[in-house]
Amino acid sequence: MSSLLAVDLGLKTGLALYGRDGKLCWYRSKNYGSAARLKRDVHNVLGSIADLEILVMEGGGTLAPIWQREAERRNIAFRQIGAEQWRRKLLYPREQMTGQQAKQFAGDLARRIISWSGLSRPASLRHDAAEAILIGLWAVMDTGWLKEVPHELRRG
Predict the structure, then answer these.
(1) Which of 65, 106, 107, 148 is most buried as measured by Cβ atoms within 10 A of its Cβ?
(2) pLDDT in tens, 54-109
(3) CA within 13 Å, CB half, 40
């Protein structure tokens, strides 16, 4: 079984792991506080996922090479994207008028993905974890693991 890890990059990082069936396995948010702490933990995060095949990351800057180097060291396929790629596929244009609006709709859709995947609904969901969930859904469709947005997740 292969898995895909989606990362919403930042000192406050969102993480979402998907299985080959296209469903979300787990998600979380980590507040690293500093680049040094993030750098120390990336090794542990990637090392804790035995079947990790693909790492898809949204974001850039000085933190991106930390994830990329560790993925390459472990022979994990690495892809870096911009928010517009997953937003264009998963959110309507009217849901993206402002960044705040996009974050709200991302949170709503992420909660539906959590439920569709059979995971317990969170009491609260940080926007970085929600965005990682959507990055991951986009990525499993882009890789072909999931052919399209599941019917249960579509909005009218």
Answers:
(1) 106
(2) 999 999 899 999 999 999 999 999 999 998 898 888 877 887 777 777 778 888 89
(3) 5
**Is 128 within the bounds of a domain?**
yes
pTM above 0.85, yes or no: yes
CATH number, domain containing residue 44: 3.30.420.10
In a domain, 18, yes or no: yes
**Is 63 a member of any domain?**
yes
Beta bridge partners of residue 151, listed in sequence order:
none
DSSP assignment string, 99-146: HHHHHHHHHHHHHHHHHHTTPPPPS---HHHHHHHHHHHHHHHHTTSS
Domain count, the chain: 1
Q: How many CA atoms lie within 13 A of 156 on its CB side?
A: 0
Q: Which tokens in the block code for residue 19?
A: 């299985």
Q: Mean pLDDT lowest for which of 10-14, 86-90, 94-98, 131-135?
A: 94-98
Domain of 144, in residue numbers? 3-148
Q: How far is CA 19 from CA 16, 31, 88, 97, in A?
A: 10, 24, 23, 32
In this structure, is residue 154 part of a structural domain? no
